[in-house]
């Protein structure tokens, strides 16, 4: 096993543990803000995982997927912030 493969496996394990923890928070989160934050963390983990895969395999084929995931994360955060802002104003 090369050092690159070992680092890739270690990164995959860490991303997996983080994704499981975020999914638990999405399911059990007591408030909508907890769930929204966990969803953002889950998207960030997916983006980092795809970026790590691109770096390990030395390609840029999934760059468009990274950009679309980042766009979804930004738009989702803005939409939830506006929704919560309207609830607080009432």
Automatic annotation (TrEMBL):
It comes from the Bacteria. Keywords: Cell membrane, Membrane, Transmembrane, Transmembrane helix, Transport. InterPro entries: MrpF/PhaF-like (IPR007208). Belongs to the CPA3 antiporters (TC 2.A.63) subunit F family. It comes from Agromyces aurantiacus. This is Monovalent cation/H+ antiporter complex subunit F. Pfam families: MrpF_PhaF. The chain crosses the membrane at residues 6-24, 36-56, 62-84. It is found in: Cell membrane. The keyword rRNA-binding does not apply. Coiled coil: none annotated. Its main location: membrane. It is a multi-pass membrane protein.
């Amino acid at each position: 096993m090369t050092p690159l493969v070992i680092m890739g496996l270690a990164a995959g394990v860490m991303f997996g543990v983080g994704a499981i923890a975020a999914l638990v928070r999405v399911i059990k989160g007591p408030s909508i803000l907890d769930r929204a934050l966990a969803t953002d963390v889950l998207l960030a983990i997916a983006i980092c995982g795809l970026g790590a895969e691109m770096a390990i395999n030395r390609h840029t084929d999934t760059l468009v997927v990274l950009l679309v995931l980042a766009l979804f994360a930004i738009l989702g955060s803005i939409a939830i912030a506006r929704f919560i802002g309207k609830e607080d104003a009432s």
